[in-house]
Amino acid sequence: MGGQPEATMTRLTKSNQDATQQKPSTISKATEYAQADETINDDEILLHARPCPYWFEDGDIVLAVENSTFKIPRSILSTSPVFDGMFDMDLGGVDDRLDGCPLVRIPDSARDWMVVLQWLFLRKESYTSALSFMEPELPDRNSIRFHKATSALRLSMKYILPELHNIARSILYDMFGSLYHDEPFFWFSCEQAVEAIAVAEECELEQLLPSLYYGLTVQAARFYDAPPPDADWARTMDHAHHARFLSLHSLLTSLYHA
């Protein structure tokens, strides 16, 4: 990796200034944060309004993800063959460094990494703790499960974390695998339906697509007489997804007015 411009390094260092002053010193501290899941506000951490719980004095690698940085022990990531292979290489000659550690930039979502890191640290403690994190008994449970499952699916597929991937798949199948649910099916927003469609396509969960497209179509029909092409959620859909949605929306509307 090439040398890092001084201005960017200054920004990265400043963004972690509070975190380095209040660093947890042991891995067990991270599990305390993760187990108290309802106290973790991703937005506050990502905006640096709170110290990141994953910045350790004894960490030996720094991940830079979007505007966030995580200084963690490599052993936490070694369950991934992708990272394990990276660590087999000599990182001592890496030019980009932060707080004395190799700095690795990753083109992912920092919010997704917050979920996966919480899982990985809790998994070191026990499978039960990690599973409870993914399946919390909290208010707004469906939205929380959705956020964690979609984040976990994206990264577990990319970095080959089969145990987490299977759990996240099971959660999404439980939520969207059938139109017949004990709980109301249409708890989700159009934005969440669009994200779920993209994740299902990316992670090869084709069986979920019929119920997801149907759910998006019904939700859109509830709020709009015609699909709004300028809606934020509509603009995020790729051409093929949007074309399928428009076709289903037209069919559903024609049946309703028949």
From TrEMBL:
Compositional bias of kind Polar residues: 10-27
Residue segments, region Disordered: 1-27
Entry superkingdom: Eukaryota
Domain BTB, first and last residues per copy: 59-129
Protein name according to UniProt: BTB domain-containing protein
Organism of origin: Hericium alpestre
